[in-house]
Structure formats: C-alpha cells, structure tokens
Amino acid sequence: MSFKKYLKLYVITDRRLKPEVESVRQALEGGATAIQMRIKDAPTREMYKMGRELRKLTREYDALFFVDDRIDVALAVDADGVQLGPEDMPIEVAKEIAPSLLIGASVYSLEEALDAEAKGADYLGAGSVFPTKTKSDVRVIGLEGLRRIVESVSIPVVAIGGINRENAREVLKTGVDGIAVISAVMGADDVKRATEELRKIVEEVLG
Ligand SMILES: Cc1ncc(COP(=O)(O)OP(=O)(O)O)c(N)n1
Ligand SMILES: Cc1nc(C(=O)O)sc1CCOP(=O)(O)O
Ligand SMILES: [Mg+2]
User: Fold this and answer.
1) Looking at this predicted complex, what is its ipTM?
2) What's the gap in Å between 133 CA and the centre of ligand 2?
3) What are the pLDDT digits (tens) for 28-62?
4) Which domains are delineated in the chain?
C-alpha cells in the first residue's frame, strides 16, 4: 500500500499552543496518521533533537513523520518526508539530493499545483481552504479552489487551513486524500479527544 493512506489525518505541531512531545503522543493516541514537525526560528540543534524524538514516537504508532521546510533536518532524523513551500529548496533539487524523502509541496493555486506536480512533488499541501489565525497572510482558496486542484492533479492532495470538526466533512468531500490541522488539535484542551473526533469524521467520509 502506498503512503497515501497515511495522509488522511495529518497533524502539525505548534509549540505556541502545546509542547511538541506530549501533544504529538496524544495526537497519535487519538489516531493521527501523519505528523509534521513545524518549528520556526529555533536553533538547528534543537530542531534535530526534537525531530529525533518525534521520529521515534511516530514509528511506535506506525505514522508518517514529516519536517517542515528543512530538508537537512528531515534527512538527519530519518523522517519520511519534508514539506517544502515556495521559499524553500526547489522541489527538483530536493528530489536530487534526497531521493529517499517524500516531498510535499505547499501550493496556493491551480498553477502552483500543476507546477509542483510537474517538478516531481509526491503530494500537495493545498490551502488555505478557510481563513486561519494560525498563519498570517495566507491566500484563501476556498472549497472550489481546492476542488479544482484535486480534479487537476494525479498526486495525493492534503487540504490545510482553518479545518476543524465543523467543516472537515465538506473538505473531505472535495476528493482530497486527507486533512492537515494545527489549531483544531493543538489548540484543544484534550488533544487526544480532538484527534479522535476528526479521525471519526475522516473514516466516515474516506473510509
Ligand atoms: C501539509 C502542509 N501543507 C502546507 C503547509 C504550508 O507550508 P509553507 O507554505 O511552507 O508554510 P509554513 O508551514 O512553512 O509556514 C504545511 N506546512 N503543511
Ligand atoms: C501552516 C499553514 N499553511 C497554510 C497554507 O495555506 O499553506 S494554512 C496554515 C495554518 C493551518 O493551521 P490551522 O489548522 O490552525 O488553520
Ligand atoms: Mg514550510
């Protein structure tokens, strides 16, 4: 079975909301199928150490592990993949220097989605589906923008941005392979329970 089935509930860390290790453990207990370590402005050594811990945890729970932005850290901690945005390492270069990594490309339009697929991305993180307080200056593409991307590419698509248990069903019905969330899980009082609730919705729609 390909990695696609592991994209269905993709939880991203946010240390402004919760410390990583315990929150990731809870998310994995609740049924997260993939974890992304997203740390901005920390020393590389700290990212490396955290990445090693999260790598170990995700293996225990049979989940995929991705690192945001940093291909070097992803390689060093033996992550399954790296999430690259428009300001990070170009996809085609990343594929050359790290052929073992899955490359997730962050895209904000149909044009960017087609371009990332042509350059060899393994999956897309497409958003922002809805407005979000978690990241500033996002471009909101809405459900229609997301649907256009899903219908136009052959690689798996994960939706991101403002997704929560109220709107997750309609997002999943666009045909995406999974949903990526930060605040819906990391902002909850009970991370495990919030993840379980989302996982239930994902199972209802995607099976
Ligand atoms: C699964 C997923 N999709 C999109 C993003 C956003 O990535 P990026 O544009 O690199 O922005 P930052 O997260 O780095 O602020 C993501 N992280 N994950
Ligand atoms: C990190 C990120 N990237 C986005 C994009 O549109 O690419 S939206 C976003 C924030 C997602 O957090 P929440 O689930 O709390 O809305
Ligand atoms: Mg990034």
Assistant:
1) 0.99
2) 8
3) 999 999 999 999 999 999 999 999 999 999 999 99
4) 4-206 (3.20.20.70)
Measured in Å, how far apart are the chain's first and last C-alpha atoms? 15
Confirm whether residue 39 is marked as ligand binding.
yes
Predicted structure pTM score = 0.98
Atom of ligand 1 nearest to the CA of 158: 1
